[in-house]
Amino acid sequence: MTGARRYRTRPVRVRSRALDAALLEPFDLGSVVLTMSTSPPPELDAEGRARYRRVEEMARVLDSLFTIPGTDRTVGVDAIIGFIPWVGGAAGLALSAGIIAQGILLGARGATVARMLLNAAADAALNAIPFVGWISDVFFKANERNVRLLRTHSLDPDRTRADSRRILVITVVVLVVVVLVAIAAAVWALVALLAWLF
């Protein structure tokens, strides 16, 4: 047999507080301390469940392997390698991409994959900023977010895709507004400078 194996899932309509919390998580950075069931989605076959456990463990190592002394907050290997300029950020992004690739093999598609990429890209962008990147590793935890997103996709793929599309649209709108504001500010500064000079 050639090619990557795809794991079929049976959509199960689940409306629970855990699912609601996971889907709304991007709007609440503090909610990452909440945990869902760590058991693999029941819709996966034996090989798929084993793959899911590996992905979950990889995310834990990257995001929550160590507990910060005196707190209940955790950081992972991603936070440590992030201190290495340029190389650390690239390595962290590559590892995050590996989790996303495994998610695709587990059945993630379309807007769900795009949202996982958005999480990884946001984490990489924040990690490029000194100190801010470390705070991101404590609170944002892109890899664990993506694993939880994988689980909600298995439980209710239609709703997860719909919510992911909504978040992607909001993100694009915000980015467009930021760019337009930046352009307007640059034009205003240029006009003010020319007026002062002449």
Question: What does it look like?
Answer:
The structure is a single chain. This protein is mainly α and 198 residues long. It is built from 8 helices and 2 strands. It has helices at residues 17-24, 46-64, 77-81, 87-105, 110-127, 132-139, 142-155, 157-197, and strands at 66-67, 74-75. It has a two-stranded antiparallel ribbon. Strand 1 (66-67) and strand 2 (74-75) form a beta hairpin. Helix 2 (46-64) runs antiparallel to helix 7 (142-155), helix 4 (87-105) runs parallel beside helix 7 (142-155) and helix 5 (110-127) packs antiparallel against helix 7. It is globular.
List keywords for this structure.
198 residues; two-stranded antiparallel sheet; globular
User: What is the CA-based Rg, rounded?
Assistant: 20 Å
Return residue spans where pLDDT drops below 50 for at least 5 consecutive residues: 9-37
Sequence of strands across the biggest β-sheet: 1-2
Oligomer: single chain
Write down how many β-strands occur, each being a DSSP E stretch of 2 or more residues: 2
- Proportion of residues in helical segments: 55-70%
Structural class: mainly alpha
The pLDDT mean sits at 80
How large a portion of the residues is in β-strands, by DSSP E?
A: under 5%
Largest sheet: 2 strands, antiparallel
Describe the structure concisely for a colleague.
By secondary structure, the protein is mostly helical. It has eight helices and two strands, in the order H-H-E-E-H-H-H-H-H-H.
